[in-house]
Amino acid sequence: MSNEAYQRLTQRTARIGALGEAAAVLHWDASTMMPRGGGAARGEQLATLAGLSHELATAPEMAEDLAAATTTEPWAEANLALMRSAHVRATALPTSLVEAMARANSACEKVWREARAKSDFAMVRPHLEEVLRLQREMAQALSAATGLLPYDALMEGYQRGVTAAEVEPVFDAYEVFLRDALPRAEEIQARRGPPAPLQGPFPAEKQRGMCRRLSLQIGLEAENSRLDESVHPFCGGTPSDVRITTFYSEADPAKALLGVLHETGHALYERGLPEAYARQPVGEAAGMAAHESQSLIVEMQACRSDAFLSYLGPELHKLYGGDAAPYGAKNLAGLWRRVSRGFIRVDADELTYPAHVILRFRLERAMIEGRLSIADLPGAWAEGLQSLLGIVPPDDARGCLQDIHWYDGGFGYFPSYTLGAMAAAQLMKAARTATPGLDAGLAKGDMAPLLGWLRANVHAQGSRLGFQDLLRAATGKPLDPMDFQQHLAARYLE
Amino acid sequence: MSNEAYQRLTQRTARIGALGEAAAVLHWDASTMMPRGGGAARGEQLATLAGLSHELATAPEMAEDLAAATTTEPWAEANLALMRSAHVRATALPTSLVEAMARANSACEKVWREARAKSDFAMVRPHLEEVLRLQREMAQALSAATGLLPYDALMEGYQRGVTAAEVEPVFDAYEVFLRDALPRAEEIQARRGPPAPLQGPFPAEKQRGMCRRLSLQIGLEAENSRLDESVHPFCGGTPSDVRITTFYSEADPAKALLGVLHETGHALYERGLPEAYARQPVGEAAGMAAHESQSLIVEMQACRSDAFLSYLGPELHKLYGGDAAPYGAKNLAGLWRRVSRGFIRVDADELTYPAHVILRFRLERAMIEGRLSIADLPGAWAEGLQSLLGIVPPDDARGCLQDIHWYDGGFGYFPSYTLGAMAAAQLMKAARTATPGLDAGLAKGDMAPLLGWLRANVHAQGSRLGFQDLLRAATGKPLDPMDFQQHLAARYLE
């Protein structure tokens, strides 16, 4: 079925995969456990792993075996195609460019932290100009090697199988939808009056217990996961050992709770990846938009649904005591599905979040294509937000300085958030149709019906398919933004 | 001062060092944090790091640069000598032998766990025979490459700069000393009557607080260390990020307390290694006997001294309350410096511990030299223990099955324990002479005077010197077992 060259390739990619797993655990450790004094040495360790990984990926034997490898087994074919694509990307960039980017990104990110704190864009501007210059150089080099358009070649680094030309009309349509939907949602919300706040106290220890319990209840296994604390919550680790982190605010139990449910969605995806292809490219998740679809289908689609809130409310009331009324499903929906025009992406609600992403997508694409200079960025940001949400940021800290992505060399990532949200709605609709008892399960806190469908149709597929093909196989069609709009309409406009 | 070949070598060894650090953190994680389901993947990660490290160490460029490297700077000279020696050892063993050992050790260790539980030596005997056969092959290969005698070549893997011919008379003399000292110590102890037990409860949380506090008080920095829990306590991590583990018994607070003080000694050594040579061979600790000397000088020499116990007792009484009398320094000495002839090495007191090591040293040396077969091991063990301590193990579980070392391919390690204990006494004597106020400090819980001397004379030396030369530089003479005997006589025979 597969020749010896292919067998050698799988051994080599398994080593690269193992290095990646080791780095993932070291990253987790750095955010959760490592004493501060270990930082410099950790940097050396991670740089060494990254360097060796790159050397393995670009070794001459790799190119020889990629040229000679053949297989007739479909998964192995997909695996081989991914190896070839990764090799093209790894060898497309000269070492001098990779090193220049590492230096520029690191320098820019450091200055950005201070610039954001002072809301002083001018301070970081020359650094960001250098980062962008190098990003454009990278995009050109990747474009030449892959045949993709420059911006698409950057996007491919985060999510394979979808182009800006496909994203653009989807985002444009959303803008039109939002122009009508947002004022209507606000009006409906205003008519309902403000929800009643939950009554504390919410001790971190109780929150932790509930977060872990729910995380396990909806499908994680205790033997293959952990829940810890870090300043910036994330899901890390490896598929057999997933590690969720969160941050407990004793003033508001919703932040950690909904955050852990979100990360649990990521973790369930990792847990469901095909074990037979562990540490192989085809055994990995299908990309960042696919990953975000799994966190959002759990957090937004399932756990913020009326059905699940009707289960969750009494559980929380049992835990925290006090007045029962605020724990009613309707009131929780009022608290946790509140629409509001804000400046900050990470604080945005489900309806306005895409506006933040659309703004960034348009701006970064224009920057990569040379249509927007860094000097004009703050102005373009203000204009774009005004046009999308009707508000203008009072300063750059709440404008183009708020996100780390660009300042750390991350161009092409932003669309993943909203592609994920849209895919989540589309997948949920398909799951609901295919799975009787899905909502009845949610109303009892039982996510098994939904999870069973996701495991078969998304998780177990690894990265055999690109974004659009994955959706096609699972739902019968490529990305269809109407499913997301219908979900939003049902939730916010009725 | 140093040529380009040397510079390239330091870059390559720094990568090997960084891989070693990454593996150390992953080992720590596996013992403290990792959920059980992560075990198989962790095995892959560690095997990959070990394999890459070996490939870097044996790459053809390494041999070329080692041949061409020159330097005139003394530390760099020592570093280069260590690189050459490591290269000789790494290339002395054919890959087939390394792989056969990995398989045989792993298979034997697995069977040993069951054999020990059942006290069934016959069950593991063929496995141990295979392990020994391969260890002898390794010893021959290393001997041919290094010019050392076969057993010395194995010992060198754990502690450089001391030979069995030097160890043998030292151990023989200890046997003579013990024959007289042990019954006298027992008699003195019997005359004093049994110490009063400490009154519980000893909640784990209180123990943890005290262990951490003492660990920091005697010299660890919070920014560069952690204290966690694991089944088998150890000191791991990296020099800028040392990680101590312990196990809390709520029945007996001494186990964790003295264990943490022991591991703190190891940790202080790592913290004091020369930062300028981080991730270079010469920047590492000088070997296992040197390491054990640092754990024992803290635990046995300093913290079980009358002076420190007079400080520690009231602190513990403040923490646990109850009757104050058992916390008196004399009573604590009665509890924590109790002499007893036992079968188990890890439970042994300071006076009889060397007898357990001498027994193992003689047996493993005879096995490597072909003078003792595995079939005759249980009999030789019983005979040896009878001769050293006057007791015979009732079964093999409490005899030759008790320690993991041999069953996991660890021949040549055992002498390090007692060489370390002896070196600790010798270093303590020299430190006392050179440092006024050392004992006055201990009586106030202040280890700064001792630590200052150790940092300058041991820690900051890295592995510039072998075991005997390190002692010579620090104390003016090679290993002198009389210092240890004097220490024991003062503590147990007066």
Structure description:
The structure is a homodimer of 494-residue chains. Chain A has 494 residues and is mainly alpha-helical. In chain A, 65% of the residues lie in helices and 3% in strands. In chain A, strands 1-3-2 form a three-stranded mixed β-sheet, with helices on both faces. The longest helix of chain A is centred in the N-terminal third of the chain and has 29 residues, at 4-32. Chain A is globular, with a radius of gyration of 23 Å. Chain A binds chain B through residues 14-15, 18-19, 21-22, 25-26, 29, 33-38, 40-42, 44-45, 47-49, 51-52, 221-226, 237-241, 278-279, and chain B through 14-15, 18-19, 21-22, 25-26, 29, 33-38, 40-42, 44-45, 47-49, 51-52, 221-226, 237-241, 278-279.
Separate helix tally of chain A: 20
Using the alpha-carbon principal axes, give the shape of chain A. globular
Largest sheet of chain A: 3 strands, mixed
Biggest interface: A-B, 38 and 38 residues
Provide the low-confidence segments of chain A as ranges: none
Biggest sheet strand line-up of chain A: 1-3-2
- Run of helices and strands of chain A: HHHHHHHHHEEEHHHHHHHHHHH
User: Between the first and last Cα atoms of chain A, what is the distance in angstroms?
Assistant: 56 Å
Helix content of chain A: 55-70%
Task: Determine the mean pLDDT of chain A.
Answer: 97
Rg for CA atoms of chain A? 23 Å
Record field, number of beta strands of chain A: 3
Q: What does the oligomeric state look like here?
A: homodimer
Strand content of chain A: under 5%
Secondary structure category of chain A: mainly alpha
